[in-house]
Specification:
Strand content: under 5%
Oligomer: single chain
Shape: flat
Number of strands: 0
Length: 127
C-alpha cells in the first residue's frame, strides 16, 4: 500500500474541516480580518457617521444573525458597516420600535416580532 502524499493529506484535512463546519468558520474569519484591514488602510480620515436609522436597522439584522448562529456573517456585517463591537441594547431597540418585551417576545429577535406583526396585520385586513 502506497503512503499518502502531501496532497492526499491536505485533501483529507480539508474534507474533515468542511464536514464539521470549521472550514467555513475559518473562511469567514479570514474575510472579516481582510475587511478590517482594508477598512483601516483605505483612508486615514474618520469614516462617515452611520445615520441613526441605518445603525438601528443594522442592529436588528445583527441581532437576527447572532440569534440564528450566523456569527461570522454578523462579524462581516459589523466590519462592513463600521459598527464592529458597538451594539445597541435590546432595551434601546424595543424603545425605538415602541414595543414592550414580554416572556414570549424576549426570546426571539425583534425582526421576527416585526414580521409577525405585519403578517397578523395583513391577516386582519383580509377579514
Amino acid at each position: 500500500m502506497a503512503e499518502p502524499t502531501q496532497t492526499d493529506l491536505l485533501e483529507a484535512v480539508k474534507e474533515s474541516l468542511h464536514k464539521d463546519g470549521r472550514l467555513e468558520k475559518f473562511k469567514a474569519e479570514l474575510r472579516a480580518a481582510v475587511m478590517s484591514i482594508l477598512n483601516k488602510n483605505s483612508t486615514d480620515e474618520e469614516p462617515p457617521k452611520v445615520p441613526d436609522e441605518t445603525r438601528f436597522i443594522n442592529e436588528l439584522i445583527r441581532e437576527y444573525l447572532s440569534w440564528n448562529g450566523y456569527l461570522y456573517t454578523e462579524q462581516i456585517l459589523a466590519a462592513e458597516c463600521g459598527q464592529n463591537m458597538e451594539r445597541l441594547s435590546r432595551d434601546v431597540l424595543t424603545t425605538k420600535l415602541g414595543v414592550m418585551d414580554d416572556s414570549r417576545t424576549a426570546k426571539i429577535p425583534l425582526l421576527y416580532y416585526i414580521v409577525s406583526a405585519f403578517q397578523n396585520h395583513e391577516t386582519n385586513d383580509e377579514t
